[in-house]
TrEMBL record:
<keyword id="KW-0223">Dioxygenase</keyword>
<dbReference type="InterPro" id="IPR023789">
    <property type="entry name" value="DHPP/DHXA_dioxygenase"/>
</dbReference>
<keyword id="KW-0560">Oxidoreductase</keyword>
<feature type="domain" description="Extradiol ring-cleavage dioxygenase class III enzyme subunit B">
    <location>
        <begin position="8"/>
        <end position="305"/>
    </location>
</feature>
<keyword id="KW-0408">Iron</keyword>
<dbReference type="Pfam" id="PF02900">
    <property type="entry name" value="LigB"/>
</dbReference>
<comment type="function">
    <text>Catalyzes the non-heme iron(II)-dependent oxidative cleavage of 2,3-dihydroxyphenylpropionic acid and 2,3-dihydroxicinnamic acid into 2-hydroxy-6-ketononadienedioate and 2-hydroxy-6-ketononatrienedioate, respectively.</text>
</comment>
<comment type="pathway">
    <text>Aromatic compound metabolism; 3-phenylpropanoate degradation.</text>
</comment>
<feature type="active site" description="Proton donor">
    <location>
        <position position="117"/>
    </location>
</feature>
<comment type="similarity">
    <text>Belongs to the LigB/MhpB extradiol dioxygenase family.</text>
</comment>
<dbReference type="InterPro" id="IPR004183">
    <property type="entry name" value="Xdiol_dOase_suB"/>
</dbReference>
<keyword id="KW-0058">Aromatic hydrocarbons catabolism</keyword>
<feature type="active site" description="Proton acceptor">
    <location>
        <position position="181"/>
    </location>
</feature>
<comment type="subunit">
    <text>Homotetramer.</text>
</comment>
<protein>
    <recommendedName>
        <fullName>2,3-dihydroxyphenylpropionate/2,3-dihydroxicinnamic acid 1,2-dioxygenase</fullName>
        <ecNumber>1.13.11.16</ecNumber>
    </recommendedName>
</protein>
């Protein structure tokens, strides 16, 4: 028997539950997320495979893999998200790592993966809590330059999908991140030495974390007031991305270079790699149809916020 597979992709933001985006936007996003949650409930997944980035919370330049599969993982609990362990089915994760390596993708593996809101927020939103269902987390570096070509994220997704198809389970594939956004994240080669230390190896103290979270909140408020040096959100690009995903035109993403995306979508637009990987995973199990799409640029959250669901046909 083959698996039954469904997909939900969503943007995340550290400010999702913190900054007021305006009553109308709040209502629209809450509705879209409630519908996604209902879609997941109805599908009743036995396993969740989630592609997500982090924000120098777990992976730092001391050792930065392009991709990493977690066979055991826990969340730090940044920006008011839950902290604690995920329920990772160890043998499934082990087999997935083996299967992806067999497909000649040199994925890293972690037996102590640390995740942040990039993975925990969609788990909370879609499942109720980070530990609600068995989950295999797959990290995709989406911020720490240099990044490899988009094509590799697509191929990773494909290899994951080929494995998922063999499981004989109801599997929900999740992608977390994007779309266009340019949050205030320092860069290794231009940051002051003390700041760069946090990108390389140093963990923030609780007080430093609190300051960082306030700084990001303030940046969102400034951005929403139009008084910000951050790159504007790019709804045209975001809609183009959503159209390609819905059309199943995943090869087209191979043509988006890192430089071009950076220029048009901001420094964190590369999180759409998680969407490409998730869709490639679903596509590897058979043809699919996008069943819902929500999109709205939300400056107060510094993100072009999107939610989609899709099913195998
Ligand atoms: O550095 C962090 O911890 C979070 C950075 C950050 C800020 C606003 C919107 C985002 O999407 C984002 O990733
Ligand atoms: Fe992010």
């Amino acid at each position: 028997m083959a698996s039954q597979v469904a997909l939900c992709c969503m943007s995340h933001s550290p400010l999702l539950h913190r900054a007021d985006p305006g009553a109308e936007t709040r209502k629209a996003v809450d509705t879209a997320l409630a519908e996604a949650r209902a879609f997941v409930d109805e599908f009743d997944p036995e396993l969740v495979v989630i592609f997500g980035p982090d924000h120098y919370a777990g992976f730092r330049y001391r050792l930065m893999p392009p991709f990493c599969i977690g066979a055991s993982a826990s969340a730090i609990g940044d920006y008011g998200t839950e902290s604690g362990p995920l329920d990772v089915p160890q043998h499934v994760a082990d087999d997935l790592v083996g299967s992806v390596l067999e497909a000649e993708l040199d994925v890293a593996m972690s037996e102590r993966m640390t995740i942040d809101h990039g993975i925990s927020q969609p788990l909370e939103v879609l499942l109720g809590s980070i530990g609600a269902r068995p989950v295999v987390p797959i990290f995709i570096n989406s911020v720490a330059a240099p990044l490899g070509p988009m094509r590799r994220a697509r191929l990773l997704g494909e290899a994951v999908g080929e494995f998922v198809a063999t499981l004989d389970k109801r599997v929900l594939i999740v992608g977390s991140g994007g779309l266009s956004h340019d949050p205030p994240v320092p860069k290794l080669r231009t940051a002051e030495a003390e700041v760069a230390e946090y990108l390389i190896d140093k963990q923030r103290t609780p007080a430093e974390q609190q300051r960082r979270e306030q700084q990001v909140y303030d940046a969102g408020q400034e951005f929403a007031q139009g008084a910000s040096g951050l790159k504007p959100l790019n709804p045209n690009l975001d809609n183009e991305i959503l159209d390609l995903l819905a059309a199943g035109d995943l090869h087209r993403f191979d043509e988006f270079t890192v430089e071009w995306l950076d220029a048009h979508g901001g420094g964190s637009v590369h999180e759409v790699r998680t969407w490409v990987a998730a869709h490639a995973a679903l596509a590897a199990t058979g043809p699919y149809r996008t069943t819902s799409t929500f999109y709205e640029p939300v400056p107060a959250w510094i993100v072009g916020f999107a939610v989609t669901t899709a099913v195998s046909t």
